[in-house]
């Protein structure tokens, strides 16, 4: 009899190799362990072992052989056992259970099991401790370190243990909360949560005193006390995360708030000017939708998952990506996800920041490289397992992200315009429709996620806010919805369960019908013992809420079940404007819908002009032009991100047409394209841009540059300028401080100005306003680290013909030209950071000049005049030229005889926006000149086809081999 | 000519796989594994059984294992039967891993899986284009093909084969595809030409009849010319190399 199955790979696994290399120790072995809640007899043990292992490549450890087998690898002396904490999603255990149940059928019914990673080493205790720190996160996993002897003993005596969630059996009785208390007591409820009978607090509600007073008034008007569920629900619904109070607040003299005036305002203005059908569904749904062709709509949404990723990078990132996939599933009647995007803003993974959430070196922040690696793999697993290509992304490093990483995850979806003759982007839960919850079960995951992600990261940030995604459960659910339910019109409305869980999804959908009645005891749970309020606000992943007409309910549930997906009736939508929640027939929530959604106190914000921190002049380091190019190419923000592109499946769905790595020399492009339909040659081009490094100097110009670059990249790729839409993701810091709000207002104003100038509508957006870390450094000094204000603009556009898609590789004999004017704009540039700068300005977008360049480029490209093109971005012309050479493996000659009063370095490294580097055949030049008459361009050289890049000055020629540049460009990022 | 393309539990390349078969002239259907288990007799209506790529069961307990065990428990005899007829089976990527775990390939002793798919030597997921050469021309899937340029995308693509078995695999000529380098010579394990460190640069195996092909690269993702990296430099052709595999299936029944 035994209660564990432990499996060893006979040969060294890739994971073992990398661990051995990382820790410089050849004696490291990893065991996949499964701990069972019951003892297995020999027959069951043998049968199950065979089911979950491969006898060619693996060995099963038994009491008899364990010592002998392991001693053949090394004299191990330390062991670390890593298990998930009770209640944390354990995907492998779920699969194993399913295999066992399917195969052993009824003969083995009730058991629990947990998966474990056991690492054995020969070394010192410090070594195993170090490994455990890199391999496990104490927030979601238990880490047990013990001597190898004890491990053998555990084996002998069946002492491996599985921990189950043991919540005290509690009988729920309706809990009423007294709000007639002092302001101090009231604000404690907001800050620390509702007080339990044992005086403990549930965790932050994120409600300020004013909101609590509004709630108190409401209940005194209706003459009763609120229940705990009502207060929890209001906290979720009114959270910054859900209501975007700062964007909707009156700010200075802007009554309607910056969202209505600048973001939505820009789109409304554009729609008014354009008079076409390009914009289909904006701002109201889970994602924004635009027209793709006459039969299809595409939608796009980009989310942030910053706080969860700071606490559990892998879990935060994977839930980020599968979460935003659900936003597409919840667009209209359900769009099929067809591409993922990502953007990470991280601290230097090679640096040790040593930050602590509490004094005396307690509660440390995870290390920068643990965070970076975890985030990169989280999106890998989420995207790859879901079968959604992840072609488009970028990574940016800056020390100011040490307190909080920014993780942007986006998804593009596609949906037919009409389903059974009805417009697919319109949905409406009708009174009488049944509320069906489909997908995963509900646990304590992510309780208070919505409220805490709106707050700064401090010692009271709750750990139960962490969730782990299960992409396979979601994939199964998604397949049923898109393939088997949607096209038959079996439901009237659908939305995802994200922040705020059921309270949010049902609350939002009920706006369509009027109100709702939910019976919480019907909700399937992962384990018993959850309080009703926990069920109501839990953010357990992989769930969609559907409004199903009563006649279709049986069919819908049957189809889900046939595919191994759980679906449950949990209530119904009603006409009356009432939000009603019951638990075992006791009414525990009864609110007016109007109060639930609009009752929150509106903020009244004031801004003040901040003292911009000017970058200090740095003396230019003396080094050659070639050295400068090498330094820039190998700097983390320019160096190739190939290692991410190759681990993210960008080929699945067979749609990839412009890939992340471009040219024979594999340069990491800033734009990618997919061709989503087999029978239409139209493609979707995707790009994104953000310039946090420009933010403190001038937030208006920073936002201008983001919009300009995101837009320009699509123009360069060949997209139709009339079919480009953009998305805004503001990640700000300290948004309760007037100078930060000033920067916000400035950036939003630029959003209006440039979007309207380019006539590119905002279709969706999301903000995250408090990306600050408050804690302590290693000396115990209190520190606050704020991210630089970051506005990510994601762009999505339609390329009408395959022949319009451009490449970045010139051919022998091509002439090289820079389109657009180059100014001395080196301030905050990569060059200035690495080499230094004297007197310079920050990059500014001139939209008239830019548009002139873009329109002419589009025209020339359609006429086949452009042979290759690349958007000039970080590192300026110098980097664009070398990237072209690396990509094509073809030599270039650049002429540095400069017309304008500009130095060689200013010309080569200035980050003036709106410029494009292009190449064309000599015989196209005459036609090109006709088109570009009156707009700025410079002929800068030609493609020689040799193996060097040459820069010709008046006096001398400087050159370097392309292969040397490629080496610099493809260096590993230290710490990753 | 009818093809059944399997789906469910995280398989995710069924649409593009079916499309490729349809373009060359097959009629086909995507069938969920649970529906097939409910009604295995429907297999009689098909000449080709395709297990597409994906992440069945999230690769938990080893890529392809859990789905293979589901088939083993519920459909094994029917599938063996199918493989013994004049019909074709293809497993691509995760489908390859499933066929290997089922032992349908190389199927020399017919009882248990003889080969294992293990993690890439690099320890990471590899999504990249590779060149492979056809080693075994007797398989209907691979007839008259010499070299293919195809993408791989996997975490566990390394074929692990006991030495004795490898000998008989070679003796029986069951290696389907092998990774080659930029000089069209065997990659000899060199990364990135051999993306996973597979012994003898093996990228695909067949059974003895050659009618069952388990391949790690994705032909359906190299179907049209615009799938191929840097296609703009060479856009005269309509199809990519993957097309040839599907055409061969058509020719087999023509």
Task: Provide a quick synopsis of the model.
Chain A is of the alpha+beta class and 976 residues long.
Estimated helix fraction of chain B: 25-40%
Structural class of chain A: alpha+beta
Fraction of helical residues of chain A: 25-40%
Q: What low-confidence regions of chain B span 5 or more consecutive residues with pLDDT below 50?
A: none
Strands of the largest sheet of chain B, in order across it?
2-1-3-4-11-10-9-6-7
Please write the CATH class name of chain B: Alpha Beta
* Termini separation of chain A: 44 Å
Per the CATH scheme, the topology name of chain B is: Rossmann fold
* Total count of strands of chain A: 42
The helix/strand class of chain B is: alpha/beta
Describe the structure.
The complex is a heterodimer of chains A (976) and B (254). Chain A has 976 residues and is α+β, with helices and mostly antiparallel strands. Among the domains of chain A are: 2-156, 2-Layer Sandwich (Mth169, Chain: A); 806-976, Alpha-Beta Complex (Phosphoribosyl-aminoimidazole Synthetase, Chain A, domain 2). Chain A is 34% helix and 24% strand. Chain A is built from 32 helices and 42 strands. A seven-stranded mixed β-sheet of chain A has the order 19-21-18-22-20-23-24. In chain A, strand 12 (356-358) and strand 13 (362-364) form a beta hairpin. Chain A is globular, with a radius of gyration of 29 Å. In chain A, 56% of the residues are buried. Chain B is α/β, with parallel strands linked by helices. Chain B has one domain (2-253): Class I glutamine amidotransferase (GATase) domain (Rossmann fold), CATH 3.40.50. Chain B is 26% helix and 23% strand. Chain B is built from seven helices and eleven strands. In chain B, the strands form two sheets. A nine-stranded mixed β-sheet of chain B has the order 2-1-3-4-11-10-9-6-7. A two-stranded antiparallel ribbon of chain B has the order 5-8. The longest helix of chain B has 12 residues, at 242-253. The radius of gyration of chain B is 17 Å and the shape is globular. The relative contact order of chain B is 0.16. The chains are: A alpha+beta (976), B alpha/beta (254). At the A-B interface, helix 1, helix 4, helix 15, helix 17 and strand 27 of A face helix 1, helix 3 and strand 6 of B.
